[in-house]
Design goal:
By secondary structure, this protein is of the alpha/beta class. The chain has nine helices and eleven strands. The structure holds adenosine-5'-triphosphate and magnesium ion (MG).
């Protein structure tokens, strides 16, 4: 089966989400993120969205699907973790009416267990829905749950099976990955060797700055494309993910407790000194 690629008119795209895009990219619809991705994800790519608990993985993934629907690209949200009512409720709080999109056959929530998905042989559970909806986008929330059902040694193979299944159906997938150890420069993503299986990795990370918890987003890799290499600050607002400026004055963001860069410290001392002088 091949999934239909709904062609969205460039004008519709640009009206909804203005910004320069490279031809054929799968826009997230989050303007700043699309800019970081040089227009959006590459079509058909498997993207890993990694981050520790509560960093905004589900929110960003749902926003990617909802924006897809707005652009005429149907989407599927496969979840292993939450009860459907909770998903609809949480989405509604961001202003996203998933039930309405389902009624219009533009969206589907599939609640399943990884064991069911794997037992049914080559993930065939999804086939019917893929035929009905013909999605261009699909989210798996989360790939980490596979770990509970397969031996650690088999994890890479099972994840590969899921990714290959989605790729052969031509969907651009976002696979969520709970990564508690995105710190000290090492990602638990690499523990089971999954980072080599995906085409793109977007990481979300809590950062402690001056005793408050802020959040950083970084694109760790993107096969076949240039991308923004900086850590960008983001917030979860009542309308979804909002990306702000880069953490340019800090270094060591990856550690979770960054330091001000020397030049910034100097500027602060300088400002302090000139204030004292004036006083
Ligand atoms: N309606 C809302 N408005 C503003 N912020 C919200 C709203 N709903 C949730 N949040 C914020 O988003 C956070 C959770 O985001 P989300 O569920 O996307 O994270 P996650 O990475 O998927 O978490 P988990 O690891 O538990 O699955 C909450 O802790 C809260 O700070
Ligand atoms: Mg979640």
């Amino acid at each position: 089966m091949t999934a239909a690629r709904s062609k969205t008119g460039a004008s519709g795209f640009d009206q909804l989400f203005p910004g320069k895009a490279e031809e054929g990219r799968v826009r997230t619809g989050i303007v700043e993120l699309d800019e970081m991705l040089k227009g959006g994800f590459m079509p058909g790519d498997a993207v890993m969205l990694a981050g520790s608990a509560g960093t905004g993985k589900t929110t960003l993934a749902l926003q990617y699907l909802v924006n897809g629907v707005k652009l005429g690209e149907p989407g599927i949200y496969v979840t292993f973790e939450e009860l459907p009512d909770q998903i609809y409720r949480d989405a509604k709080n961001f202003g996203w009416d998933l039930r309405k999109m389902e009624e219009q056959d533009k969206f589907r929530v599939i609640c399943t267990s990884p064991s069911l998905m794997l037992e049914s042989g080559s993930d065939s559970l999804l086939d019917d829905v893929l035929r009905d909806i013909q999605p261009r986008r699909l989210v798996v929330d989360s790939l980490s749950h596979l770990e509970m059902f397969v031996k650690k040694d088999d994890m890479r193979m099972e994840a590969y099976r899921v990714i290959r299944y989605l790729k052969t159906r031509g969907v651009s997938s976002v696979l969520l990955w709970e990564s508690p150890q995105i710190s000290g420069g090492s990602f638990s993503v690499t523990d089971v060797g999954l980072s080599f299986l995906v085409d793109c990795i977007v990481a979300l990370k809590p950062v402690e700055i001056e005793s408050s918890m802020r959040k950083a987003l970084v694109i760790l890799k993107m096969r076949g494309s240039d991308h923004d290499k900086r850590f960008r600050e983001f917030e979860i607002t009542s309308t979804g993910i909002k990306i702000e400026s880069a953490f340019t004055n800090y270094e060591g963001i990856i550690s979770g407790s960054p330091r001000k860069v020397a030049s910034e410290k100097f500027m602060e001392m300088f400002r302090g000194a000139s204030k004292q002088k004036k006083a």
